[in-house]
Design a protein that fits this description.
The complex is a heterodimer of chains A (about 60) and B (about 300). With about 60 residues, chain A is an alpha+beta fold. Helices cover about 25% and strands about 30% of the residues of chain A. Chain A has one helix and four strands. In chain B, α1 packs antiparallel against α2, α1 runs parallel beside α5 and α2 packs antiparallel against α3. The longest helix of chain B is centred in the middle third of the chain and has 34 residues. Classes of the chains: A alpha+beta (about 60), B alpha+beta (about 300). Chains A and B meet through α1 and β3 of A and α7 of B. Chain B: This is YIEGIA protein.
Chain lengths: ~60, ~300
């Protein structure tokens, strides 16, 4: 068996500049939708996480 | 002793044949590599040997020798453990895991096949010994033994055969749609896919199936998580999954429609071919651990309604 922390939000990627992280989860601000897409891809590839869309300009990257 | 020699050899051959036949029955449970092949063959020979010596031991009034069979049972439990451990160990190396229920099923199948070898050789021994009791010629004794063995093999092989998802449910193609970021198949939400690129790949290359259970019991069987994992694993292993470890977006997930018990699954394969996907899903074995007899229980509100 492989053990590890799962179902954890690793990062938040957003174009909403008003968003403030209230926890340990880092928030990455993107300039536009294209940048947001790219940032999310890069973070997910690095962390093996999965990108989920919360709509209204916010993505979360979750480790499953 | 010379006489028992023929008995033992006949029984041994029949038992080993039984094990060999089971190795070929289904390629999915066939040990793929020469090492496992040799390992299981040897265990089959040992099982057949234990069954073969039981009758001569009884004939010689060596009743204690029957404890050999208890030893055999212990030995085969170890086979199950060995198979379970080895599959558990390689589970982390699978892109789409088998799931513990499927592993348990395979391990049990290996154990059962050794019992088959033992019982086939035991039956052959009994057949031969009956021939000997009636003082028939040696060739005829062997023949009676073989007939006994073959009957046992045919009977047990049929019993062990089990059935497939295609037998209990209708499998039909479905369409992948996106409701915002939500991947849906036949109206059931499967997962949230954020990346636009992944969504595009799903829409272009993705395939989806809807599994509609034929009856109430099939609905319960298909709801089992282990059974669903088996379907996912089967589809991805046989069609080739388009996924790597850093792409969790393309993990096939079979979700249940809570309203009617239908199962839906979306998958991106290397070569999208709807027909093959349907075939593979239909040919997924129904796991023993997923089988339920929901309509046979004492509390029968639903059973009464369907008139059972």
């Amino acid at each position: 068996m492989e053990f590890g922390i799962t179902d954890l939000i690793i990062a938040v990627v957003t174009t909403n500049k008003d968003m403030v992280s209230s926890s340990m989860t880092p928030v990455f601000y993107a300039e536009d939708d294209e940048h947001k897409e790219r940032l999310a891809l890069l973070i997910s590839k690095t962390t093996m996480g999965m990108v989920h869309d919360l709509e209204s300009g916010t993505y979360i990257i979750v480790k499953h | 002793m010379n006489d028992y020699f023929v008995l033992i050899v006949t029984a041994l051959v029949m038992g080993t044949t039984a094990r060999m036949l089971m190795m070929r029955v289904d390629y999915r449970q066939y040990p793929t590599y020469p090492q496992s092949y040799l390992g299981h063959f040897t265990l089959g020979v040992i099982a057949a040997g234990l069954g073969a010596v039981a009758i001569p031991a009884i004939a010689e009034k060596e009743y204690v020798a029957i404890t050999f069979l208890a030893l055999a049972a212990q030995q085969f439990r170890d086979v199950r453990n060995m198979e379970r451990q080895s599959l558990d160990n390689i589970e982390v190396t699978e892109l789409v895991p088998r799931g513990t229920a499927y592993i348990e099923d395979i391990a049990k199948a290996f154990e059962a096949r050794n019992y088959l070898a033992l019982l086939a050789s035991l039956a052959t021994g009994i057949g031969y010994f009956i021939g000997e009791t009636f003082k028939v010629p040696i060739i005829l004794r062997i023949l009676i033994g073989v007939v006994f063995g073959v009957i046992t093999i045919v009977f047990l092989t049929n019993m062990l055969k089990g059935y497939f998802v295609g037998d209990i449910a209708e499998v039909r193609p479905a369409e992948i749609k996106f409701d915002g970021p939500l991947l849906t198949v036949a109206g059931v939400v499967i997962m949230n896919i954020g990346l636009k690129e992944s969504q595009k790949i799903y829409l272009e290359q993705g395939l989806a199936v809807e599994i509609v259970p034929n009856h109430e019991e099939a609905m319960v069987i298909l709801s089992n998580i282990g059974q669903r994992q088996a379907i996912q694993h089967h589809s991805s292993i046989q069609l080739g999954i388009r996924k790597d470890v850093d792409e969790p977006d393309f993990t096939p997930i079979a979700r249940r429609n809570p309203k009617n018990g239908n199962i839906v699954m979306a998958i991106v394969t290397m070569e999208p071919n709807e027909k093959y996907l349907l075939d593979v899903v239909k040919r997924t074995p129904v796991l023993e651990s997923a089988k339920r007899k929901a309509l046979d229980v004492a509390i029968t509100t639903k059973a009464e309604r369907v008139g059972k």
